[in-house]
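Hi there. Long-time user, first ticket. I'm pasting a complex I've been working with (about 460 residues overall). I'd like to know whether the download I got is complete or cut off, because the file seemed smaller than I expected. Thanks.
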Amino acid sequence: MKEEQVLVERARRGEMFAFRELVERYKKKVYYLAYDLTGNHHDAEDLSQEVFIKAFRSLKNFRGDAKLSSWLYRITVNTAISQQRKKSVSQMQLQESFEEESRNEVQFSGGETTQNPEKCAEAGLMQQHIEKALQKLSPREKSIFVLRHYNDLPLKEIADILKINLGTVKSMLFRAIQKLRKELAFYKQEFL
Amino acid sequence: MNNCRKCRSMFVEAIYGELTSDQQERFKSHLESCPKCAEEFAGMKSSTEIMNKRVRTEPDAHYWEGYWDHLAERMEREENQVSKFSALWQHFKKNLYFEPRLTYRLAGAVALLVIGIFIGKLYFAGGSSTDFQHGIAEQNLKISSGQTTVKVRADRYIARSKVLLLGMINFDPETEDAYALNLPYQKRISQNLVQEAVVLKNELNDPAYEQLRELIGDLEVILLQIANLESELDMDGIEMVKSGADRRGILLKINLEEMQSVNQQKKI
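Hi, the file is complete. Here it is re-exported in full:
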């Protein structure tokens, strides 16, 4: 932890080697969160790079009273939400259909050659349903859900990252899961 | 009922294993005695299990090796763009300093623009002197008559309430983030409006304002509901406000009142 503080301090002074070391440490965490928020590699790459650029420019504002990872997560969520707001509805719909097509290609031509085609198609379809269900959540709900569910952050830490109270995190997560349940009701029988 | 509510407030923590052992015990014993909560919890848990089936497309090792290079490239590109812009600005500033003619031209253009705006404002928004006198007379009339002043305040009250109600009625929880509603702010305004409604209703004692007083009474009920909403996530409460406004035909009444006010002003 102390080593990290030294790296932050050096990066703050403009030392690129120190900043590179920080990027190497957190690139996967930031990328995966970006992937969960955007749902595709291209946008996740773009978002994660933007996060590090923003972090580099505003390192002077990082007071060090929170964990560096939490600070980076906060930048990621805020950047993702503002990017999403900027996108017009028509653009999003166009992209959605395009991504769906490309995802189909990945799923059906992908490496699972040992499974039978029927199962492979089923799995591909399920992935699509899951991604679509995630898109139904509001940006805040989605952020909270992916931070807890896919990035394994405790509820208290999520509250700190998003600067909202714990009760709000719990109720938003509750609502998010309820929405997902409604969207994925089709699969319920298999799991109950 | 109360136990069920407490139990449901623990669902999220229970799903993600964040309950203390004491809480866990109470939670379990409630589920054993309440099939409704048990079913609800199982349903939510199974949804999160389905979400576990989501597969992230993993970038290969090559991607991670080149990550810094791509990032550094982008940083450099953006840095160049910024410095290009600042160089352009410096060049422009330098030209202004060394070429007085350019400075004069620029100053002339700005002056023309300001004059244009000034003339435009005078021409389009000025109005005739009789209009102006008429406006003053109207103002005087309003001030001289106590009831008319109350009417003006009531009209303003209705206009403010309408803006607030429209925001609430048009809010769609399916597509919009609950935080965009800024409920604490709306609640504060509703509280103020409720207080103002009490005063206005007492002052509007002229029988001619019977309809207006009734409308303010209806608005008061709806605004009170908004003021008492629990949080941004009180979707049931928000729905109640919407259906209440709908049931009472509030917006229609407001529109009618506004039309009447306009007609009266035209007569004056």
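A couple of notes from our side: Chain A touches chain B through 48 residues (CB under 8 Å). Residues 104-114 of chain A have pLDDT under 50 and may be disordered.
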